[in-house]
Input
Amino acid sequence: MAETVLRHDWSRAEVSALFALPFNELLHRAHTVHREHHDPNAVQVSTLLSIKTGGCPEDCAYCPQAARYDTGVAAQKLMDVDDVLERARAARAAGASRFCMGAAWRGPKDRDIPKVAAIVRAVKDLGLETCATLGLLGDGHAQQLKDAGLDYYNHNIDTAPEFYGEIIHTREYQDRLVTLEQVRDAGLKTCCGGIVGMGETREQRAGLLQALANLPEHPQSVPINQLVPVPGTPLGDAEPLDPFEFVRAIAVARILMPLSIVRLSAGRQQMDDAVQALCFFAGAGSIFYGEKLLTTGNPDVEADRALFRRLDLHPMDVVESAGTVHADIGEGESCGQGCGCSAAA
Ligand code: SF4
Output
């Protein structure tokens, strides 16, 4: 097999041209890339737990955990280690290979890190891969989490750089990139993706995927979320995205970042089984398992098991490396939207 060349210089025109391909042509190309590097019948399964819910000072327009929006999400303190462990054991018993923990913070304070590190250590000792999404990291935080046994850090760039200011006003796009750099420098694997269906144009969806693909390293895990409109948030009345446009986004992500695991993330509950099957064909190789994504709904475990049976899919085992043929990777994330923050991804 020819060596795969990973590109980090995609132009917007190139990415837009992929989006504009006839649907069947795009899916054929994406599936061909997927088969070259991944087992097309294996899906990495993660479970996501909100370890600190609500009360977030940020203003992400999609997020029910922002304190400023009246969404009925009650603020809770950071969970105790034992309570998290109980949930992690249940996730492992249900077949999850990775346990993702989200906290609704702008970012952790120095005093929070030892508490989160203790949680990470305990979950890792169960034999699960670990992922955390805690928001913007401060100096030394990524290394401390790595030392505690963290495998992945989730931090999404959310949307195209030019659309970011329409969605979030309390931090800059560049802040995201700085945290991602800290995560890479600490030797953690990155989980980084975004949300579609927030009123952006197709060109802006192309911009999101272009920005992800042109990061210094492709994220090992790329969650593509479909907005779950939550009443009380500024995007509570957002128009639903055409499901085929969502499938196109999965396919383009697959082509741009061939070794990454593309995760079908938030919004699955709103998709019918046929759309999910198209997403798997287009290159999605990971899902969240469990009835809740932080604070928004997710298909229940039995429904997912039935879907796997009908599609002859099987869950991946825990593995460490991304990008080898038939390898399994995974990743983690946050807020019910996969936003990349702390409680949303
Ligand atoms: S997405 Fe994360 S950072 Fe944004 S408001 Fe929600 S919890 Fe806070």
Summary: The pocket of iron/sulfur cluster is lined by residues 56, 58, 60, 63, 65-66, 104, 135, 335, 339, 341-344 (CB under 6 Å). The longest strand covers residues 42-52. The two ends are 35 Å apart (CA to CA).
